[in-house]
Amino acid sequence: MTARRVLVWFKRDLRVHDHAPLVAALAHDDALALFVIEPEWLHSPECDGSHVDFVLACLTELRAALAVRGMPLLVRVGSAVQVLTQLHNEVAFTHLLSHEETGPGWSYGRDLQVVAWCKASRIAWQEFTQTGVVRRLRSRSGWAQRWQARMDAPLHLLDGKFVAAVTLDQPALPTLSSLGLMPHGKKLQPPGEKAARQTLKSFLQVRGYDYRKALSSPLSAEEGCSRLSPHLAFGTLSMRTVHQATEVAIGSAPDRALAYSLRGFAGRLRWHCHFMQKLEDEPNIEFHNFARVCDGLRENDFNDHYFSAWCEGRTGYPMVDACMRSLIATGWLNFRMRAMLVSFASYHLWLHWRQTGLFLARQFLDYEPGIHWSQMQMQSGTTGINTLRMYSPTKQAQDQDPEGLFIRRWIPELARVPLPYLAAPWKMDESLQHMAGCMIGVDYPRPVVDDKAAIKAAKDRMYGLRQTQEAREEAGAVQARHGSRKSGLPPSGQRRKVEEPPTPRAQGDLFA
Ligand SMILES: Cc1cc2nc3c(=O)[nH]c(=O)nc-3n(C[C@H](O)[C@H](O)[C@H](O)COP(=O)(O)OP(=O)(O)OC[C@H]3O[C@@H](n4cnc5c(N)ncnc54)[C@H](O)[C@@H]3O)c2cc1C
Q: What is the reported pLDDT for 43?
């Protein structure tokens, strides 16, 4: 009988816990693992050195964790089919196991090539689900129940060791410079599976208390949000692990305040997959408007000067600029401020979401294509179905940074501007500007556009379009295909029997 040699192909699932392909590999005669650093990824317009840096650090930890379990992890640079072909010549694997991926255009194209290659090479490629995204979904009805069932299913526990019959060289991992990438200069969240589990634990036990209150301000969100997004994006934690740990934390919360707060968080985990499902169902939304009636709305109006000012945090609107500078330095920003940045770019500056979205994709360490492109379009008014939200940057400064701490932290030019003027420093007269050591137009830019006039123009255009018969008809179709439905599910913490303290096994030794 021919030996069954299996190759586990790691992609955006850089963990050993709750990893279905790894567990399935245990049933084979011998197994090895692969991560491919694909030039298509490195050269894609949404890839940044910070993403690669994070992944390389995760791979270092993963390689050590797999070695303990007897599985070598090969890390090779090249196009997927090219690397698979070469490896197949070296070790003649018979099976390929991986997780499903809902990725951008280039990874979708790569998957089609791998399917064809596997067929031609007689390799059995098995893909496993890892999120709530359903492939070849016919209808959104019942989607929430399917998500729930998947997330409640038992975790995949790795009980046992692998046998690696072949020994291959495992050269040191490449570096950013050996891959031809520049240093990114960002201060990133800690990478790897251990850090991910630690982040989850600290959120569910301590930081999550104020989640609902902390969400909106960039000051409180830094600590009060879970900060799990890069870990979910690169798979150092599975969504099922986060969901199950959250349900247990809600059920066993020492007081109602924590349970209430965590319920708000639990609902957002489903949003993650809800948005990814949109890209799975309609891959074109990465490039085209959801509502095609919006085609032509912004395409010919792109103003490079506005775009540079926005990218560099020099729009003259302190809250916008502080958010952008903070994002560039850390790779993360809370939801409300992301929405404000996009609203400002799309409505005030009338920039097309594709270019601004690519810039933000590079800045967000947690870039997740399905969420990202859906949100970019939602905040730009091109889905045709969502309420139009146009944020006022001065109101957001007053609401979310009432003492000006965030603005002063990220815009040192404004450090001495009196608080009443901090959200709108151009309102200072000349003598005040002298006293504050900040001359508008010299030390800090004048507003690139007039807030009120820009918003009025955007409203006229957007509402004018929305009222057309064509827009209304198309909205119905978009809603039917992508809109959320009432889930009908009971609240978090009441769905599963969470009263009993979980055994380490049932929890997959979650906080080990
Ligand atoms: C224009 C724009 C682009 C965005 N791009 C991304 C992206 O590329 N990757 C990404 O993970 N999130 C994206 N988001 C959603 C959201 O801002 C982040 O998920 C969140 O800020 C991450 O921080 P956290 O993990 O601390 O979130 P928490 O508030 O602690 O939420 C926990 C998790 O729930 C999910 N979640 C929370 N809010 C949302 C939401 N509104 N939509 C979908 N899922 C959500 C995420 O997986 C998140 O990690 C985007 C939002 C906007 C407005």
A: 97
How many Å is the maximal CA-CA distance in the chain?
89
Q: Is residue 35 one of the residues assigned to a domain?
A: yes
How high is the pLDDT of residue 37? Answer: 98
Distance of CA 116 to CAs 81, 109, 128, 302, 321, Å? Answer: 10, 11, 18, 40, 47
- Ligand 1 atom index nearest CA of 338: 53
Pairwise pLDDT comparison (3 vs 352), residue with the higher score: 352
On whether residue 450 sits in a domain, the answer given is: yes
* 155 assigned to some structural domain: no
CA 203 to ligand 1: nearest atom: 30
Three-state secondary structure of 46-77: CCCHHHHHHHHHHHHHHHHHHHHCCCCEEEEE
Detail the DSSP E strand segments found in 315-399. Answer: none
- Ligand 1 atom with the smallest distance to the CA of 215 is 29
Atom of ligand 1 nearest to the CA of 369: 8
Q: From the CB of residue 86, how many other CB atoms can be counted at a distance below 10 Å?
A: 12
Give the CATH number for residue 11. Answer: 3.40.50.620
Residue nearest atom 44 of ligand 1, based on CA coordinates: 272
Q: Range of 88's domain?
A: 5-130
Collapsing DSSP to helix, strand or coil, 133 comes out as coil
Torsion of CA 359, 281, 16, 56, to 10 degrees: -20
Instruction: Supply the CATH number for residue 449's domain.
Output: 1.10.579.10
Confidence of residue 507 (pLDDT cuts 50, 70, 90): very low
- Nearest residue CA, atom 53 of ligand 1? 339
pLDDT of the residue at 320: 98
Give the number of domains in the chain.
Answer: 2
Mean pLDDT computed over every residue of the chain: 93
Residue at 115 is within a domain:
yes
As for ligand 1, residues whose beta carbon falls within 6 Å of it are 225-229, 232-233, 265, 268-269, 271-272, 275, 334-335, 338-339, 342, 364, 366-368, 371-372, 375-376, 379
The residue among 102, 130, 158 that closes a domain is 130
Pocket test for ligand 1, best of 268, 333, 359 (most atoms within 8 A of CB): 268
pLDDT at 495: 57
Point out the domain boundary residue: 66, 97, 130. 130
Express each pLDDT in 232-276 by its tens digit. 999 999 999 999 999 999 999 999 999 999 999 999 999 999 999
What are the tens digits of pLDDT across the range 283-301? 999 999 999 999 999 987 8
